[in-house]
Automatic annotation (TrEMBL):
Positions annotated to bind substrate: V134, I135, S136, G137, G138, D167, G180, D184, N274
GO molecular function: iron ion binding; tRNA N(6)-L-threonylcarbamoyladenine synthase activity
Function summary: Required for the formation of a threonylcarbamoyl group on adenosine at position 37 (t(6)A37) in tRNAs that read codons beginning with adenine. Is involved in the transfer of the threonylcarbamoyl moiety of threonylcarbamoyl-AMP (TC-AMP) to the N6 group of A37, together with TsaE and TsaB. TsaD likely plays a direct catalytic role in this reaction.
The protein's required cofactors: Fe(2+)
Cellular compartments annotated: Cytoplasm
Species of origin: Candidatus Faeciplasma pullistercoris
Cofactor details (free text): Binds 1 Fe(2+) ion per subunit.
Membership in a protein family: Belongs to the KAE1 / TsaD family.
Annotated residues for binding of Fe cation: H111, H115, D302
SUPFAM superfamilies recorded: Actin-like ATPase domain
Origin superkingdom: Bacteria
Name of the protein in its database record: tRNA N6-adenosine threonylcarbamoyltransferase
Enzyme Commission code(s) on record: 2.3.1.234
């Protein structure tokens, strides 16, 4: 069964054809990074305009690379939530038109579920149930994956997402957007014990995260040094910051795995490409004998292969949408 996936939740216009939820036949991504870099982050209006300009060509290229025509496609899957509302609307509108014109079923896909499904592409042997840490620019979730289409959120960030924290700290240190990769590269050259940042404790949930205090602590450190005319070692700051994030993520993940009895652990989302995060979680899993699943780097960030993969399982579960489907900027994974 071939699913055409469409993704436009932020600043990547993407389309992909995936067979049976695991085999990628094509995966096309039109990135806006170079343009958005001029503004130090994603400008929603510009992102929406670029999606509108790119989506026809991206979908055509995905079909061509897969050696398919629309008559070979069994269903059209599209990200409808969550994300930038204008960006989402471009993908949803295009998918609805394509579905109507081709007579193919339309499958709405939740973006976070798509990130989780990226692991099915990289690890065909992976099957639920398992515990997944989703870490991206907009989300930080601890998710119990009960089935391919049923999820329970055990913990989430109370404020900033981990990826957003990486980008804001990187900007403060003078690195260009997107900052996460620059923090990762700089951290390898720095002393991760040079600065000590505190770990917040969350009232009411031992599995929730908070990154706003850490972000503020780093910003204050840099600004105070600047006001005093002191020069900080950016590599040391980056290394200490990344070490703290790794501590926070791994501690909550291992605590949830132990308390809920999971020995299969997955990580997903853009921040799962961070080498420090990957190595730290792998080390903690190895200590405990847990099996760890990490997506290939090309499936960590936003892409349509993960949407098509999840779309396959949603389609098999009977999930469909009609012409009334709308984009939703904020929607819990448990409410799909």
């Amino acid at each position: 069964m071939k699913i055409l996936g469409i993704e436009s939740s932020c600043d990547e216009t993407a389309a992909s054809v995936v067979e049976d939820g695991r085999t990628v036949l094509s995966n096309i991504v039109a990135s806006q990074i170079e343009e958005q870099k001029l503004y130090g982050g994603v400008v929603p209006e510009i992102a929406s305009r670029r999606h509108a300009e790119s989506i026809c060509g991206v979908v055509s290229e995905a079909l061509s690379e897969a050696g398919c025509k629309m008559e070979d496609i069994d269903a059209v899957a599209v990200t409808y939530a969550p994300g930038l509302i204008g960006a989402l609307l471009v993908g949803v509108s295009y998918a609805k038109g394509l579905s109507y014109a081709s007579g193919k079923p339309l499958v709405p896909v939740h973006h976070i579920a798509g990130h989780i499904a990226a692991n099915y592409i990289s690890h065909p042997e992976l099957e639920p149930p398992y515990l997944c840490l989703v870490i991206s620019g907009g989300h930080t979730h601890l998710v119990a994956v009960n089935t391919h289409t049923e999820f329970r959120i055990l913990g989430r960030t109370r404020d900033d997402a981990a990826g957003e924290c990486f980008d804001k700290v990187a900007r403060t240190l003078g690195f260009p957007y997107p900052g996460g990769k620059h923090i990762d590269e700089s951290a390898r050259q720095g002393n991760r014990f040079a600065y000590r940042f505190t770990h917040p404790k969350m009232d009411g949930s031992e599995y929730d995260f908070s990154f706003s205090g850490l972000k503020t602590a780093v910003i204050n450190l840099v600004h105070n040094a600047s006001q005093k005319g002191e020069e900080l070692n950016k590599f040391d700051v980056a290394a200490s910051f990344q070490q703290t994030v790794c501590d926070m993520l791994s501690e909550k993940l291992m605590l949830a795995a132990e308390n809920y009895g999971y020995d299969k652990i997955a990580v997903a989302g853009g921040v799962s490409a961070n080498t420090g995060v990957r190595s730290r979680i792998k080390r903690e899993c190895d200590k405990r004998g847990y099996t760890l699943y990490l997506p290939e780097f090309r499936y960590c960030g936003d892409n349509a292969a993960m949407i098509a993969a999840q779309g396959y399982y949603d389609f098999m579960a009977g999930k469909r949408a009609d012409g009334s489907l709308n984009a939703v900027a904020t929607l819990s994974l448990e409410n799909i």
